[in-house]
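ugh ok fine here u go
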Amino acid sequence: MVLLKGSSMIRVGNGLKFIAGAILICGAVTGCADQKKGMDRFSKPIFATKPPQKARVIPTPVLPPTPQYVQRPVPRPAPQPVQRPQNVGSEAGWIPPGGIKNRWQEIVLHHSATTKGGAVAFDYEHRHVRKWDELGYHFVIGNGTDTGDGQIEVGSRWTKQKTGAHCKTGDNYYNEHGIGICLVGNFQNSSPTSAQLASVDKLVLFLSQQCGLSADNVKSHGGVTHKTDCPGRRFPLAAVKRNLTLAQSNVRTDMLATAGTGR
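structure:
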């Protein structure tokens, strides 16, 4: 180190202490330069920083307008149609799956001329004895032997709406357009049971209403062909026709009354 002129020095212990007026300079230029470089190192930032970026502006999504809900009036149930007369007295199987065709113009009544039987027994006879394709009648009404007293059996011909095989004429009109109903029994010797008569009245009313027929269209087998006594002299054909006329009149009266009350 260099002590310049005009400076004073005193000894303190083992070292020297410079007092006022002394100027201490570096004895070695290189040492001072290195010191300066070291100081410059601290004056500069250690880590480089990127310039601030502008904030991204995220556009606000445009939402569809909220739909305006308008309360609609609750629809009222449609008025129920007035019950038609052809629905009177219908039972399971009386209306075929494909409906009733418009071909039927007559109702022909028969007896089996046997003391017992039913649709199954008559179907067997018609197939194996008479060599027909199936039961010739459209309906069979039991007398309590093979089936219940007054029980109405629906034949396969009615289900198929197929031509009958019960009343043969020259033009086959009554097979093609006549509904065949057979009551089990021999009514040359005895009368039908009360249950059978109630069932035939109910069935005839139903069929006449479905097909637009009247009492004039209800006939006996023998009355058509004049070749047989079927359905027997003790069968009350006139009473069946009279009951039909009365029942149809009552149905029409009930319909008018129902229509008038709006039920």
